Amino acid sequence: MAKLEVIVASTRPGRIGPVIGSWTERLAREHGGFGEVELVDLAEVGLPFMNEPLHPRLGQYTHRHTREWSAKVREADAFVFVMPEYNYGYNAELKNAIDYLHDEWKYKPVGLVSYGGVSAGTRAAQMIKQVVTTLKMTPLAEAVSIPFVQEFIIEGELAPNQVMTSAAGAMLDELVRVAAALRPLRTPEAEPLP
Description:
- By secondary structure, this protein is an alpha/beta fold.
- The protein has helices at 17-31, 42-45, 64-74, 92-99, 122-134, 162-182; strands spanning 3-8, 36-41, 78-84, 109-115, 138-139, 144-146, 153-154, 157-158.
- β4 (109-115), α5 and β5 form a beta-alpha-beta unit.
- The protein starts with a strand and ends in a 12-residue tail after the last helix.
- The relative contact order is 0.17.
């Protein structure tokens, strides 16, 4: 069965990304569509600002942190990005983590769990679609958007409403389908057309 990585994008002190990430991870495990679900926290990954001398497309990484990040992303079949909205966009740490690599992202679906104020992080979610499609990822239409997110944090836990839970279920269903559909494109036998 496929492996799903839930990537918590926020790294700043006082962040609530891990709370939302833990909720997403639990729902993904309960869903049962993935053989393995892993929560990956960019604050723990600790990538410095891009410091590789060669283009990521070459895959010739000079730093251990890049090789470890490459292996982590390569082993996944699908992703969920748990992401805040900063000034109408997604955060720099997520962009940095994406830009470190190239082929490792190819032909993998990504679900978006965004959060913020009145916009629920939807502007950030819309913006990141341009980036991930350039890397041949498939962003899903099904997504979770959490408005006024602080209102849903109770005693350090996310207390989702039915809309959020239903949206997460639909996103996970689609991640399973799209991951299976894209898997043949990631095999060594899948050669580009002439």
